[in-house]
Amino acid sequence: MSKYTQPINNSRFIRFLVNRLKYNRDAKVLITSRNSETGTGKTTLAIIIAKLIDIHGWSPEKQFFDAQKYMNYYRECDAGSVLILDDMQFMADSRRGTSYENVRLSQYWSIMRTRNVISLATLPTNSMLDKRFLELADVRLNVIKRGEAVPYRIVVNDFTGKVTQWRFRLEDGTKETIYFKSMDDDPDYREVERKKDMFVRKKLREMNKS
What is the pLDDT of residues 86-101, one digit of tens each? Predict the structure, then answer.
């Protein structure tokens, strides 16, 4: 995969993803926000990363709100693809840890190692996610304000099973921060937002009926 022979700029986080694909391994990234705020640009950040990393060219067909559709696509997609699980809390809610969808998706994440695919999952906060997914993830990006995110490497202790998060540092030792801009004029972003709006409307209708 010649595109991944050189690091992209000086980002250790981006280099981590690049190296995962270079050495034929998957990577799973959680994108959350400080104080569980909405509208901070989590999906925007996911699209920016996907467009940067996906060697086939990222398109909105690689955005998913349904766990089964995501798993089906994962099985068939080309190596080097980037998939976005938008609003993952609906697929892996911590309060529904034994649900069929939770179990199936966590099983998938546990064996997703060498298909050479990056998965980016957006959700408001870690606590809304079944803890199994945090243990299986590789990185968490926490959006601290619109246009600014902090990357953490997720590590599980071999003996205690305790999950810790270590902030990425640049080569000069400074703590890494990811800066990003809005994508309001990007046609892929507009399509993603259209799909997301349809999904939210559907969920609201379901809630009103229950």
Answer: 988 777 544 444 455 6
